[in-house]
Amino acid sequence: MFRRTVLLAATAALAFALTACGNEDAPAASLPPSTSVASQIPAPPQVTIANPPVETTDTASAPEATDPAQNGANPVNNTAPITPVDPARYTAYGNEVGWKSPSGKIYCKIGYAEFGSGCQSGDAPVPDGANCVTPSFTIDQLSKGFYMTPGKVTPTCFNQGQFGVENAQPLEYNTSITFNGMTCFSRVEAMICDAGGGHGFVLSMQQATSN
Fold first, then answer.
1. C-alpha dist (Å) from residue 189 to 11, 53, 138, 203, 207
2. 191 DSSP 8-state letter
3. Are 158 and 122 in contact (CB under 8 A)?
4. Residue 140 confidence (pLDDT) above 70
5. Is 35 helix (H, G, I), strand (E, B) or coil?
6. Counted domains in the chain
7. In this structure, are residues 62 and 172 in contact, taking their beta carbons and an 8 Å threshold?
8. 210 within 8 A of 201, measured Cβ to Cβ
């Protein structure tokens, strides 16, 4: 009887030990995999831009291609990290920020006035939805682009340099600038701006689209 009691006690102790080991491993196995707090930056139509995993300052390796050389290129295929820049480097008159594309073909500005923000280019196609018919200017004489305010984009044509600023500095490829709740991304393929609320535009020598 004594031997049977000892055997039962030993069996119970072994079962407890196995159960304890199983419980110790269970929490670790059930932990969800770690995820990045911000793996994506929202962006305009047909474009998803990766949030920079590490902010870098090396722009020497930025592509030197010009917009015409990117014929047929689609920004959606560009997954190079984006580096945010300090908007103070691009301060313009009237509490605004202004810049140009590295190719010098696109000019942009973000401010607070109703028609103070957007991008334009004389070499871009006419944006869908823009009324660019005027008796005073031909299509080739007009600059094409978009006005934007927070949560809204308006395609249009310009008969002057609406968004040009004095001594405009280039917004280097694979960098972004954020001001007054709006963000623009400089890619080799296009200038991509997010006005917020699911609205934005893509502007290049081959594309002028918005939503």
1. 71, 21, 26, 9, 9
2. E
3. no
4. yes
5. coil
6. 2
7. yes
8. yes
Q: Are residues 76 and 173 in the same domain?
A: yes
Ramachandran category for residue 131: left, alpha or beta (phi over 0 → left; psi -120 to 50 → alpha): beta
Residue for token pair 């722009």: 59
Measured distance CA(89)–CA(99) in Å, rounded: 10
Place of tokens 């535009």: 201
DSSP of 133-192? --SS--GGGSEEEEEEETTEEEEEEESS-TT--TTPEE--TTEEEEETTEEEEE-SS-EE
pTM of the model: 0.67
Which one-letter amino acid corresponds to residue 1? M
Q: What is the mean pLDDT of residues 104-117?
A: 94
**Same-domain pairing of 195 and 156:** yes
With a pLDDT cut of 70, the percent of the chain lying above it is 64
User: Which residue range is the domain that position 14 belongs to?
Assistant: 1-31
